[in-house]
Amino acid sequence: MNFRRATGLLVPVSDLPKVFRGVFSFRYFNSVQSECFSSAYLSDDNLVVSAPTGSGKTGIFELCILRLLARLLTPEGLFSQPRGALKIVYVAPTKALIQEKVKEWNEKFGSKSLGLICQEVTGDNEFINVKDLQDTDLILTTPEKFDSTTRRCRDQGGAGFVGDIALVLIDEVHLLNDTRGAALEAIVSRMKMLSRYPELKESAISRIRFVAVSATIPNIEDLGEWLMAPPRAVKRL
């Protein structure tokens, strides 16, 4: 049993490598984030989290991002990022939410901190070239836009930037049950299919991780079984 979970202790940010601590402006993760710390940061398992609005689900996403970036730490604890080598895709239903995250994550992960390149890919970027995404580290997009972008890449006969995707973060995952859920279902299925391609077995996508959160997931176990295939960590908090 996890000692902190058993005793109700909060996980300190100082448990992270020094180079990552500046991402967070507080000293301790809250109870929800502490409960998910081992699943988010100490594991590469897929994860589904259902927790109330305002409970810190963005912090769980950020721990998963840092888990991926930890692969690039030097033995001395320094961070070295080959541009675009390990891509993160954040999928959210609205441009407003995406633009909020672009601003927030540019400050936390951008050039003045860890040096990641963040790029919004929505309907406002109607003529984006998939080649422009080669050097992007963090792609923030809507289900519909990412569906069309990855489908176009596939139809052009190449994996393009898709082979570098190592982490997919899905916000408001309950929208699978909405009329817009088809696009989200399509991109998850496409990523899972590509991860099994023999020609991509040496690429980042072959070990792709899915992390999905929502405030309202009535059938969280069913969602975990489909999304995670098989489910590895499902938490209702």
From TrEMBL:
<feature type="domain" description="Helicase ATP-binding">
    <location>
        <begin position="38"/>
        <end position="235"/>
    </location>
</feature>
<dbReference type="InterPro" id="IPR014001">
    <property type="entry name" value="Helicase_ATP-bd"/>
</dbReference>
<protein>
    <recommendedName>
        <fullName>Helicase ATP-binding domain-containing protein</fullName>
    </recommendedName>
</protein>
<dbReference type="GO" id="GO:0043138">
    <property type="term" value="F:3'-5' DNA helicase activity"/>
</dbReference>
<dbReference type="InterPro" id="IPR027417">
    <property type="entry name" value="P-loop_NTPase"/>
</dbReference>
<dbReference type="Pfam" id="PF00270">
    <property type="entry name" value="DEAD"/>
</dbReference>
<dbReference type="InterPro" id="IPR011545">
    <property type="entry name" value="DEAD/DEAH_box_helicase_dom"/>
</dbReference>
<dbReference type="GO" id="GO:0016787">
    <property type="term" value="F:hydrolase activity"/>
</dbReference>
<dbReference type="InterPro" id="IPR052247">
    <property type="entry name" value="Meiotic_Crossover_Helicase"/>
</dbReference>
